Amino acid sequence: MEHARLQLVNKLFNDRPKSYKYNLFQMKLLIDRLTQHYNLTDYKQQRHNLAFVTVDKQLSPDIITHLRDYEGFSHFVLLSCVDWIEDDKLQLTYLLNQPNHKYEIGVRVLIDRKNPEMVSLHKMWKQIWTYQRELHEAFGIIFPGSPRLEENFVLEGWTEKPHMLRDFDTKEYAERTYFPRPGRTSNDPATYMREKLYPNQPVTAKTNKND
Amino acid sequence: MSDLNINQKVSEMLQRSEANAQQDEKTFVRPEDELREVVAPDGSIIKINPLYDYYSGERPQEDKPKNAIVEKFLNWARSESIWVLGFGTGCGSIEIPPLVTPRYDMFRFGVQMRATPRQSNAFIISGYLSVKTLKRVIRSYEQMPSPKYVIALGSCTINGGMYYDSYSTINRLDKYLPVDVYIAGCMPRPEALLAGFGELKRLIKEGKGEKANEYARNFDEYKANQKKIIKDWNMPDYNW
Amino acid sequence: MINSFLGFKPDRSLYPKTNAEGKLEIDLSSHQYTKLWLGPNHPGVTGNMAMELTLNGDEIVEGKTHVGYLHRGFEKLIERRLFVQGFPTSIRMCVAEPDTNEYLIAACTEELSGYDKQVPEMAKWLRMLSLEMARLQGLLRGVPGQAGTFSLGIGVQWGTYLRDLILDRFEELTGARVYHMYIIPGGVRGLLPDGFKDRMEDNLKEIDQFIIKIRKLIFNNAVFKTRAVGLGVITPKMVDQYGIVGTNARAAGVKRDVRKDNPYLFYDLLDFDPPTATEGDVYARTWVRWQELIQTVDLIRQIMAKMPEKGEIRAQMPNVLNWRIPQGETYVKLESGRGEYGLYYVTDGSDKPRRVNLRGPSYTHGIALLEDMLVNTNIADVHALMVSLQVCPPEIER
Amino acid sequence: MSIYYKLGYTLLGLLIVLNWGMLMSAIFRKIVARVGGRYGIPYYQPWIDLIKNLGIRTTLSHGIMFYLGPVFRFTGAVGLFLFMPVLFGNEAWANFSFQGDLVLILYFQLFGMLGMALGAGEGGHPHSAIGISRGLAQHAAIELPMTMGIIALAIQYQTLSISDIVAAQQGSVLNWSIFTNPIAGVTILLAALGAMGHSPFNLVKAPNEIPIGPPTEYHSTFLGILMSSGAILHVMEAVLFMNLLFGGASNWFEMILKTFLIYFYSVFVGVVYPRFRIEQSVAWFFKIPLLLGIIAILMYSF
To answer: Beta C59-66 vs C50-56: how paired, if at all?
Structure first.
C-alpha cells in the first residue's frame, strides 16, 4: 500500500511540471501577443498560471476588452485596490480568468491618489458595478456612470474618510467612538513574547531566506 | 370620547412630535420622512410628520411587578417558556441550528424560536455587532414586549473580543442594551448556550429578570450612547 | 391546456414600464406596488442581510440586496496584524466553511515568502482532509436546507445532526468545533489522533444512509419538484456574464471546478469527476449538490486510504514574530462548497500584509445575480433562491 | 333539560375541547420532533406558553379592529363548538345543534378568518396583509370542494342537520359516509388537508417566507386568545369531519380517538411534504378535489 502511494506521488511530481511548463508557455505566448498591441509597463510571472501586467490608465479599458473578446478571458474574478500611500498612488487590479487555458492575468492600473477616478467597466460584466460601488465607499474612487455608486454598501452614515485608506486609523477611531472596557489590556504579541517568553532569543533572527 | 377631545389630543400630539423633531438633530432624515403638509380632499391642510406618525415616540414606561405571589407564579411560567427572537446578528448564529436539532434539542427546556419581535421574550445577540446591525437590534429590542431578556454571546459582546480595534463593531454591548446573561467564548459551544439558558431561567425565577425596567429607568443614558455611534439616526427615540 | 389555465402565470413584462434611462418607473404612492423588507430580522434570510423588495401583488418587480450588517473590516484589521496573527482573524471571515480561509492565507503567505515547496507531504494530505471535511459539513447543511426553504424541515434536522458528528471529528483533530485554526503557515498543527479513521468511517456510513434517505425525501417529492423545477434558471450564457462559479455554474452545464482546472494540494491524485447538470434551476442545483455530497464522502475515504500513516507535518519556518515577506502580490484560489474562493494578497516587505482581499463566490451570486434573478418571481421563492445560490453574507462584506 | 344545565354542560365541554386541543398541538409538535430525531417539547408546554403570554406586561394596540380580531377568531371557534353535536345520542353534549346547523357551521369556519383579516390588517405590518390575502385566497379554494362534498352528503341524507347525518351512519362501520359515499368522503378529506393548515398548505403562516403571517403583530393576551381559539378550532374541524364521515362519537373516548386520527392524518402528510406556493395550492384544489366534488354532487342529483 505504501508502495502504491509512493508511485502515485511520483507520478504526480512527474506530471505536474509538464502541465506547468505548458501553462507557462501559453502565458508567454499571450504576453508576446499583448506586447505587440499594447505598451505594458511592467510584467511579472507570479506563478505558472498567474501573471500581473501593469498598463496605463487610459489603455486599461482597451486591454481588458481585448483580453475578454480576443483572448478568451471571459471570467471576471476580482477588482481590488491597493493603497500605495508612499508613492501617492492607488493600484487597481483587474483579475481575469481564461477558462479554457485555465490561467489568470492581473491587470494593474495605477491611478492618482489625490484625485482617484477610473473608467467604469460596468457594461462589460454584470457584477463589476458591485466592486466599483464597494471601492467607491472603501477608497473614495469615482467611477463615472457606474450604477448605484453613491449608495451605502457596508457602512451607514459614515462621516470619516474612506475606511480602507492607509491613513485612516481604525484603532484610534474605535477607541474614540466605542467604549473600550476598562481593565482590558492587550499586548503586542511580538514584544510580549520576545520579552517574557524568549528573553534569550536574538532579536535579529533569521527572518527569511530572501532577505 | 367626544370629537373635541380627539381633536385636542391630536393637536397636542402634533405639537409634541414637532417639538421632538426639532429637538433631535437629524442630519440623515430621508426625503420621504421629512415634515410636510398635505392638502386633504376637503381643502384643509394637514401637517404630517411621518416618523412620529408611523411610530410612537413616547418614552418607555416602567412596568413594576405588582402582586408578589402572582408574579412568582408568572415568573415560573416565563422561565419555562422562553421565546427567542430568530435574528442571527452575528457569526454565533451558526450554533443556533445545532440547538434546535437532535443533538442539543433546546425545546426540551421550553426554549423556542419565534420569528417576530412582538412575540419574543429573549434576544440572543450572537456575537459582534456592527453599528448597522445595532440600529436594527435596538428597534427589534424596543418592539419586544416587557419583560424581555438579552443574552450576549461570545467575547465580542463583552469587550470587543478580537474586533476591539475595528471601526465597524461595538466593543461593549451593555452600554447600549441591558444584558442579562453573558456567554463567553469564541464561539461558545451549544452546551454553553444551554447553560446560559439555565442561568437565565434561574435569574427569572429569582425575579431578577427586570432588565426591561432598567432600560426604561436609564433610558436617557442608553439613548445618548446609542446616538453617539449611530450617525444615521433616522428613527424615533423609542419605537413600539 | 388546463395546466396553463390553472398555472396563473400573468404577463408581467408590460409593467412597470421602463423609462428612457432603462430604469423602472415605480410610483409607490400609486398603491400598485408594495415595498417590503425581507430581513435582516427574518428567520428565512441566509445570515444577516436584507432584501429590499418592490412587490406587485405577490410578485417581485425589483429587488435590492443590502449587506453590511456583518461588516467587521477584516481586510483593514489584517493590515494591522502580523502575518501569523492574520490567521485567527481571517478564518472568521466565513463562518460556513472556515477552513477554506485558513488554507488560502497559508498558501498566500507561503507562496510569497517562497516556502510553498517546503510544505511536507503529510501536511498537504491533512490540509486536504480538513478542507473536504469542511465541504462535507457545509453540504450536510446545504442539501436538506434547500428543502428546508420550502418548509421540509425533517431533512434539515437529520443533516444538522450528522454535521454535528463531523464537527466532533473536527474537534478531535483540531480542538475546536467551528473555528479550527488547523492549517498554519508551513503545515498543519497536528497529526490524526488514534482511531480517527475508524470513527470517521462510522460517521461516513451514517451519512451514506442519510444520502439515500434524502433522495427519497427530497428528489422524489412531488411538492418539492413543483416548487423547484424551473425556478431561478441559470443559462450557460449567464455564467460568464455574471461570474458564476461552483455548483451554480456546474448545474447550468458549465463544468468549472478549481480542483480539476488548477489542481492544488494533491487533488490530481484523487479519482473524481465533478457532477454536472444541464437545467440550471433550483432542482438541478440541489441535485448537483446531492451528488457532490456522495462525491465528498468518497473523496474523504480516498484521502484517508491514500494518505501516509505518519510524517513531517510542519516545515521549518522563520520566527513568526519577525517574519517579513518580500514585496509581491498573488491570488490563490480553491474550490469551496460554494465555488471558487480566492484571496488576493499583497505584501510590501514589512511584517504585515499591505492588502488582503477576499473573493467570495457570494459576492457575485448574492448581489448582481440574485437581484436580477428575483425579478418576476414569487415572494415565497426569495428564500429558496438565496439558499440555492448559497449566499453567505459575511464573505460579501467581510 | 333546563337551559342552565345545558349552559353548564356547554362550558364544561368547551373546557374539555380546549384542553384536548392544547394537548393535540403538543402531540403534533412532539411528533414532528420525533420524526426529526428530537425529543421535543414537554407535553405541558402549550399551557405554560399560554400562561406566559397572558402574563406579558406590555400590551399595545393598533386600533379597535386590532382588539376585535382575536375576539372574532375566538367567537368563530366557540360558535363552531356551540352548534356542533360533539357526542351523538346525548342531549347534554349535543350543545345547541339544530336543524340546518350544517350551513351555520360552514359559515363559522370563515367567520374567524374574516375577523383576523380585519384585525391583522389594522396591525399595519405588511407581513400580516400579505398573509391575510394569501389566507383568504387559499380559503376560498378550500371551501369550494369542501362545500361540494358536504352538499353531496346533504343530498345523500336529505338533511342539513349534523345530528341527523350522524344518526344515519349508526349501526355498523360500513354505514359510515366514507364507505357509503366514498367520492364525497375523499373530496372532504382532501379539502380537510387544507382546512387543517398544515404543510403543504400552510404558506399563510409560513415562518420562512413571511414570518408568522397574519398574527405578526399579535402578542401577549391577544396571542393567548389566538392560541386557545386555534386549539378549539383544530378539534372542532376534526369533530366536523368525524361527524360527517366517520359516524360521529358516542362517548368522549371515542371522540378523542377519532379526532386524534383525523387530525394526525393531516399532520403525517405535512411532515413529509414541503409547502405549495399559494397559486399552486389554489390550482391543486381546483383540480382533483373540485372534480371529485362535482362528480359527488352529480351522482346524487340524477
So the answer is: antiparallel
pLDDT score of C132: 92
**What phi, psi does B230 have (nearest 5°)?**
-85, 100
Q: Note whether A71 and A65 are within 8 A (CB).
A: no
**Quick check: bond before C40 cis, omega within 30?**
yes
Q: Whose grid coordinates read 422561565? A: B79
Of the candidates A5, A52, A82, the beta carbon closest to that of C354 is on: A82
For helices C121-149 and C282-306, the axis angle rounded to 10 degrees is 150
pLDDT band with cut points at 50, 70 and 90 for residue B158: confident
C44 and D271 in contact by Cβ < 8 A? no
A2-184 folds as Beta Polymerase; domain 2 (3.30.460)
What mean pLDDT do residues D63-91 have?
86
- What the block records as the C-alpha cell of B214 is 432598567
* C262 belongs to a structural domain: yes
Exposed, middle or buried, B7 (CB in 10 Å: 0-12/13-18/19+)?
exposed
Give the H/E segment covering residue C333.
Answer: strand C328-336
- Shortest Cα–Cα distance, B158 to chain A (Å): 8
Q: Is C331 on the interface with A (CB under 8 A)?
A: yes
Cβ distance B203 to B180 under 8 Å?
Answer: yes
Contact B77 D52 (CB under 8 A): yes
Cβ atoms C90, C101 nearer than 8 A: yes
Q: In the prediction, which pLDDT does B52 show?
A: 59
The answer as to whether C370 is a domain residue is no
Q: C234: which 3 cell numbers?
A: 441559470
Query: Which residues, listed in sequence order, are joined to residue B149 by a DSSP beta bridge?
Result: B122
ipTM of predicted complex: 0.88
* pLDDT for position B55: 57
For D9-29, how does the pLDDT look when each residue is reduced to its tens digit (9 = 90+)?
888 989 999 999 999 999 988
CA gap A143, A163 in Å, rounded: 18
- Residue A72 pLDDT > 60: yes
What pLDDT score was predicted for residue B1?
42
Q: Give yes or no for a contact between C147 and C155, defined as CB atoms under 8 angstroms apart.
A: yes
Looking at the whole model, is its pTM more than 0.90? no
Phi-psi region of A198 (alpha: psi -120 to 50; beta: other; left: phi over 0): beta
Q: Per-residue confidence at C1, pLDDT binned at 50, 70, 90?
A: very low
Q: pLDDT digits over C263-318, tens only?
A: 888 888 888 888 999 988 899 999 999 999 999 999 999 998 888 888 888 888 88
Asked if the C-beta of D62 comes within 8 angstroms of chain B's C-beta atoms, the answer is no
| Segments forming the whole domain that contains residue C57 | 2-66
| The listed CATH number (3.40.50.12280, 3.30.56.70, 3.40.50.300, 1.20.1300.10) that belongs to domain B68-229 | 3.40.50.12280
Return the SS3 of C347. strand
